[in-house]
Amino acid sequence: MQSHASFSDVSELQLNVHGPVFTPADPGFAPEVAAFNLSTQHQPDLAFGALDAEDVSAAVRWAAERGIPVSVQSTGHGATNAIEGGLLISTRRMLELSIDPIEKTARVGAGVRWKAVVELAATFGLMGLCGSTTDVGVVGYTLGGGLPILGRKYGFASDHVIAFELVTADGTQRRVTKDENPELFHLLRGGKGNLGIVTAMEFHLFPAADLYAGGMYFDGGYAPEVLRAFREWVPSLPVEASASMAFLRLPEMDMIPEPLRGKFVIHLRYAYQGDAATASEVLEPMRSCAPFMMDATGPLSPTQFDTIHQDPDQPVPVREHGFLLDRLDEQAEDALLRHFGPGVESPVLLAELRLLGGALAKSADGEDVVGGRDAAFSFFMGAIAAPPVLDVLPTVFSAVHEDLRPAANAGTFVNLHGHFVDAEDRERPWLPSARERLRKAKAELDPKNMFSFGHVVGLPVIDQTVLLEDVVTAGGDAVLNS
Ligand SMILES: Cc1cc2nc3c(=O)[nH]c(=O)nc-3n(C[C@H](O)[C@H](O)[C@H](O)COP(=O)(O)OP(=O)(O)OC[C@H]3O[C@@H](n4cnc5c(N)ncnc54)[C@H](O)[C@@H]3O)c2cc1C
Question: Is the distance from the beta carbon of residue 454 to the nearest atom of ligand 1 less than 6 Å?
């Protein structure tokens, strides 16, 4: 299918919405489509900054009438592959946020980041199930399952959603709960952006008391000792405890604290909710496995979540590759040390093992499509995506994946899958049965596969190469943004 939108069509869009519309010729276009991952340059034909659900609905209807594909972006933290062509709807202005402290629930607009929820919830002694950084969008994270810091205790963030408000491919606004549109509700929990644009979401919060968490750093020379201790330690962890360890080759950058700048270190991350003395005792085997450079574990407020993983808080150009492990055995340990151990030159700045299990392994109703419930660890690599390293990264990632294959799980976790290389890889986060359910729902709700960007099932039906050609070449920014 081919489609065009004329200059007057775009003016019609502008008349039907309240938020700004940008063509590539407009100075506001580049900041509107910019992603957190600087190596991904989205190039839609048109960008639209929605203010509310009505705006999203009007824009999707406008695109549907013209057969134009639609993508969605909030913070751009999940920009693993570039969006090319079509209409990009940016939700970053949709910042509705309210908390009901009695019911312990939150309601967020599609553009809200975890930081805002964490800070407001903390004033009521509550917390949401955010992951390693509060900079990501609550909705995009949760649609991908949402692997929280305290996931072993509480499960995935998507296990605790009460309602989604969704705009489907025909522009219809739907409230989706386990009673209203149940199959859609199940498929949105882990189904990412396959089925429409979520404009708001309601979910449960949890008591924030008694957190004990933080990170420990070891000199990279102790990687064999720390990795072995980690492997032997994690099976004993109670569900109240979550842990991960990362091989970090830290760049010489001002954003890195002085003692760690330019160093190869092992970063152990730990979080426990419960009695502080027990939390500390549980961590003891890791404290004594090797001399550490820094121990920043202790009682923690939920507003300090970001200090546990110390993820970058400024946009960076990265290429990522993630998969799941069924086990961490001696063979996997040897493979990790061959690729990331002392004395090895690797362009991979971060190679991270995150312990899964506990409540993450059980779906409350068995109906959602979150991948990775059966895996023991998430394994994730990230590297700066700049020449000359960029060219070698696919080979480096494949070599590591191949060496870890005996312990690897066939699936991936969509939020930490990273850059997909082809259509098959793009669908890998979902088990075949989940893919079939997503395809069936898509055939009903989005038969032309309008939402065909990012991690989705199926191939685009719309030929994106000719879309809005005349608008782009007309350079109509003066009228569009007047
Ligand atoms: C530094 C860093 C740390 C991270 N840590 C974790 C972690 O601990 N646990 C975890 O689970 N994930 C983690 N992630 C992954 C993150 O959750 C995903 O990248 C997620 O997609 C980010 O959502 P976003 O809206 O911020 O990003 P965006 O790039 O804006 O969106 C990514 C995708 O989400 C979907 N999406 C976003 N908004 C909507 C919407 N309103 N309706 C429909 N679909 C939508 C779309 O498919 C879109 O392409 C991390 C990512 C980074 C960069």
Answer: yes
